[in-house]
Amino acid sequence: MSKSIKVFSPATVSNVTCGFDVLGFALEKPGDIIVARENASKGAHINQIIGSQNIPIDPLENVATVAANALLKHLGSGAGIEFTLYKNIKPGSGIGSSASSATAAVFATNQLLGTPIKNSFDLLPFAMAGEQIASGAFHADNVAPALLGGFVIVRSNDPLDVIQLGTPPDLYAVVIHPDLQIKTAESRKLLPKQVPLKDVVTQTGNLAGLVAGVLQHDYNLIGRSMKDVIVEPARETTIPGFKELKKAALNAGALGAGISGSGPSVFALCKGATSAQKVLDSMKSAYQNTHIQFDIYLSAINKRGTIEILD
Amino acid sequence: MSKSIKVFSPATVSNVTCGFDVLGFALEKPGDIIVARENASKGAHINQIIGSQNIPIDPLENVATVAANALLKHLGSGAGIEFTLYKNIKPGSGIGSSASSATAAVFATNQLLGTPIKNSFDLLPFAMAGEQIASGAFHADNVAPALLGGFVIVRSNDPLDVIQLGTPPDLYAVVIHPDLQIKTAESRKLLPKQVPLKDVVTQTGNLAGLVAGVLQHDYNLIGRSMKDVIVEPARETTIPGFKELKKAALNAGALGAGISGSGPSVFALCKGATSAQKVLDSMKSAYQNTHIQFDIYLSAINKRGTIEILD
What we know:
By secondary structure, chain A is α+β, with helices and mostly antiparallel strands. Chain A folds into two domains: 169 residues, Ribosomal Protein S5, domain 2 (2-Layer Sandwich), CATH 3.30.230; 130 residues, GHMP kinase, C-terminal domain (Alpha-Beta Plaits). In chain A, strand 1 and strand 2 form a beta hairpin. In chain A, helix 1 packs parallel to helix 2, helix 1 runs antiparallel to helix 3 and helix 9 runs antiparallel to helix 10. The first copy, chain A, starts with a strand and ends with a strand. In chain A, 56% of the residues are buried. The interface between A and B is large, with 38 and 38 residues.
């Protein structure tokens, strides 16, 4: 039997209120799993996708194969690899579905080849190349936390500059994914082209506070800083019930809440699992009034990022 | 002889490139010194100002007395206090001259009264009230680092939310003060009213990096993040020779450089005193070509803020 590697890569929340395009964090669950096997046919291919009908199998269109092939090309490798993809993150949910698959694929490929890339940090550009197929943009704000875990700053995409912040130990996230379609490209069109300077000052003050809160493990500061005066006001109308969800989260004791990525998922951050369970119950009960189907998750902040799973 | 207290309060650099209106840090030198003495005449008064001819003595116009009287009023105190102010920071230099005097005054007043305000953090609003007389704005970005030392985030001025970041141990600043007049109010008029969203993303990425760099003691990250795409381009023309100064600082090994406050002072941050001395020499030599008079300082980052001096 040929060699195989099984890899888990987590869902991620990007933007994180005031951190539009520059901040993200990883969840413990959900996450995609990829099994990569050596194969006689050169390049990366999809063998099977389990859990989703809507993902292209064509290696030129699938984020996992595009990412893996970018790595193989960089290495000058003629290896053949086939993937079985266990798709646990719904595409279009706003919690880094394509980033998870792309990251799992490059990580698995590197492992299968005997880790020619020694520092997994250096796998980022290949995962980004994969995710670009789905999102249209070459950005690291989902891929970097998916690969590295914890909170991550993307200071710059070009040249790539990614800073790991880790996470306060007792921080939990609640994420609700309403069954709605929001295209990232459409959601981008709602963004303001110009921002009043006073809003820039408010936003930068909050982002500085959020970064300090994460690094100083100051839960209260994290909560005070989770305010977005630029992007959330422009996008919140795309998610029916957003205001009610946010209110339900805050009333139940969440530190803060906002849109995950470009939506439709909405996330809240909480101090401790007990508080997070209360927030989950409150958001669930608020959203049941909308009659929109949803999934909801309670998760610690992921500290390890993408990992090999040893069965 | 009546009781007296001698207090030192440091000069400060606000804005700090990408941290417009939200970030500041304190210098070891220069700094104003105030000697406060009990006096029979109710309220705070100026006895003497040493080192500057251009500062009002009227208690309603002097930042030190306005700040001290705000504190006395808050405390319901009928005490009489007279100040001798050793004005070592030139007014209008852009390194927190009025903030230093105001902060020294409230700190000295609180000491003289037997520290009725136990946590010096709570002296901030009174120092801000004093500085407001000079700057026209109720903001903490010079006063907070002057009082507390190190780097400080002003997340919000109203309600006041100030976060202490400390400083990397080996960080030094070089500050050059060209003998030019720039009014803060005039300099504010040059600011853009609207900012393109892509510049907001660049600026927030850099500020997040700068805050992380300060907290993680990552000197290289501090340097990479010291970029201002919003305010510096609008203001740099107010300082003849700014581009040359910045280039001279970076060429000599500075981590980064920018405008201090609204100018005309220009600062550079450096790793280590030896590097800072090279940067000072380089900036000095670059500025001698302009035939504009200047002062130049090399200083460690101040860790203690405003302190009582025991002779």
